[in-house]
Amino acid sequence: MSQANLLDRRRVVASLLAERGESLVVGGLGASTYDMAAAGDHDRNLYLWGAMGGAVMIGLGLALAQPELPVVVITGDGEMLMGMGSLATVGLQQPKNLTIVVLDNEVYGETGGQASHTADNVDLVAVARACGIADSRALATLAETEAFAPGMQDVSSGPRFASIKIDSANAERVLSSRDGGYIINRIRGSLGFGPM
Amino acid sequence: MALETAIEMAPSWPEQIFTILGRFDVRQVPYVPDAGHSQLIERVLGASAMRAVPLTTEEEGVALLAGAWAGGQRGVLLMQSSGVGNCINMFSLTQIFRFPFLTLVTMRGEWGEFNPWQVPMGSSTQAVFELCGIKVLRASHADEVREVVEAAAGQAYNACTPTAVLLSQRLIGAKVFSK
What we know:
Chain A is 35% helix and 18% strand. By secondary structure, chain A is of the alpha/beta class. In chain A, the strands form two sheets. Chain A has a six-stranded parallel sheet, with helices on both faces. Chain A has a two-stranded antiparallel ribbon with strand order 5-6. In chain A, strand 5 (107-108) and strand 6 form a beta hairpin. In chain A, helix 1 (9-17) crosses helix 2 (31-39) and helix 1 (9-17) packs parallel to helix 7. The longest helix of chain A has 11 residues, at 55-65. Chain A is globular. Chain B is α/β, with parallel strands linked by helices. Chain A binds chain B through residues 24, 26, 46, 50-55, 57-66, 83, 85-86, 88-89, 92-93, 180-181, 183-184, 187-188, 191-193, 196, and chain B through 27-28, 51, 53-57, 59-73, 75, 89-90, 92-93, 96-100, 159-160.
């Protein structure tokens, strides 16, 4: 099921991360993690292979711990719906260095393409705004995405939220490491922290 | 000094917990409110070195602490026993990332509980933690809180051994709804 008017997720993520600088990037369970891996492995990529609904909160913990660094969460609509309360928690904390990007294909792509609530009744941009994330927007084109990306580097004007409607076609799986100890200690190492 | 006076002058157990958390450099304190934690939450909210993070559900706190550790900070999750069940899948992160997880849990559903709805989760709280690979310590009396929380913080932060402290309803006092 390919819809010509919707964006290709790999191009979207590649454009978001092309000039990532010092950013710490969290990828939600599922295709978002594959998209991050496809854009290029990085010491500061925190890939999730489980903990569905936790991506935004992991990003918030990182953002509060490293307020001078941009933190970007890239996740899917299903993962975001499971952790929707975390938008309320982010709205309360107002971390200025946190950006949340939802790649919204309106389906649970990993499990057979069942429709998610965003295909019908849920507007995640409105939810995020209502939770107190004033800079919440929908990005409809690749040009808009490219224009949005540099703002993610601004650690003084967040939090911000963007929903990008993407094509629901499943891209080839690009597998990142699944070793949590490796992933988290690599990030800590990049920040100057050792393992236990 | 009379015994009563000595007891009155000793710091309260929530105050002792706050001091221990500070000594272990705990920086992020996610919580879902509970009456038993109210004094500690007030202290955290007033502490410049700690960030209090009110949650909509307890599992958010587990994920927050994983992110905090990735970013170089320690934290502690404050919740009530009824919230432990909300965390089960997210507890996976404690094994996957092997990060220093500490949670302080005020118990309901035991020791003179009035509300039967608290009993099922309260009765399974310890077993749920243990099934999830989290060590459990318990404090039932005010005079043991300090050493139990110190031990828990030590093994959580120094040995990355995920640990829960159950603060008994006997310690906190059963919630009174009627005479």
